[in-house]
């Protein structure tokens, strides 16, 4: 195709602005005839097309993006999860989901309802005119003990009116000794209290902060033994299981005691904040044969550096890994403190727990 008859200088200017050919060098020393202009136009058009073709941008192959927190999808046993990858340049694509080298689905999204504890690695593949790409998508089914099935009135906690010795939440049985009217009530309860309250007794069962990203605000509270005795939980089926993690936070009552020297506790760090104080929760696991396995220490307050700048009190819900304990059927909780008398700790022995995960 050729352009109409135009002045040669205008023609050169037009082609120079449209693209940058490898060479366009025309020196006009005389007025071209209309035929010469026509032939020159055709030649420059061919050069233009060739040059601009070299400048066509390459479209890269498709890429797969997936919002996978913590490197693995987690889903409760018998719950539903839909895996929905995002794909760039997703035009006329075909999809495959593979598990253990077997085809599972050819749909873009994969819907799963796990019926047991499993760890599965799916391979998701995309194929189109740009090529083929795949990615590995792991899924972990689990038991999640989060007390959400429990019912409480607003701003309250469970008081064990019937004086039972334990209660079950999902797959865990929790120890209870006495009730709210007992002189020494220990074990587990559950609560929805958050922050400071008008009654200091209620603050014992009030979390310093609300759990994040939750549909309900119910969590567990452990009332530990100040004299060093353990409080335990057990798997409801009595079998050994692998506990993945637990979420922990201080109660408002304990945080206030440590920070301000109240409720029978000293002010941690002393007046200058340099005294090396600490509060620790130790979790120890035992298998169904009674053999002790591993243990995990959780620092609820750490002033051990002797520096006011580095002193810390746990005030955020924090997840702690429990997998080093191994497979167990029972876990025992003990609280220890630098602030103690010969036979007991002076720090109030309360702590909040939530989201206990079992994966095997």
Low-confidence stretches: 1-8, 17-32
Strand content: 35-45%
Q: Would you state the CATH class of the largest domain?
A: Mainly Beta
Order of helices and strands: HHEEEEEEEEEEEEEHEEEEHEEEEEEE
Average pLDDT score: 87
Number of helices: 4
CATH architecture of the largest domain: Sandwich
Structural class: mainly beta
Main sheet properties = 18 strands, mixed
Shape by Cα distribution: elongated
Nearest-angstrom radius of gyration? 34 Å
Q: Terminal Cα separation, in Å?
A: 72 Å
**Number of DSSP strands?**
24
Summed up, the domain count is 3
How would you summarize what this structure contains?
With 360 residues, this protein is mostly beta strands.
Key structural traits:
two-stranded antiparallel sheet; Immunoglobulin-like; single chain; Jelly Rolls; 3 domains; 24 strands; mainly beta; disordered N terminus; 360 residues; 18-stranded mixed sheet
Secondary-structure map:
Layout (H helix, E strand, L loop, with lengths): L7 H11 L15 H20 L10 E2 L7 E4 L4 E3 L2 E2 L6 E6 L2 E4 L4 E3 L6 E10 L2 E15 L20 E4 L2 E6 L8 E6 L1 E2 L5 H4 L2 E2 L11 E5 L7 E5 L5 E9 L2 H9 L17 E9 L5 E11 L9 E2 L4 E4 L5 E2 L1 E8 L12 E9 L2
Parallel strand pairs: 2-9, 13-14
Antiparallel strand pairs: 1-4, 3-7, 5-6, 5-8, 8-9, 9-24, 10-11, 11-12, 11-16, 12-15, 15-24, 16-23, 17-21, 17-22, 17-24, 18-19, 18-23, 19-20
Helix pairs in contact: 1-2
Organism: Saccharicrinis carchari
InterPro entries: DUF4465, PKD_3
Protein name: PKD-like domain-containing protein
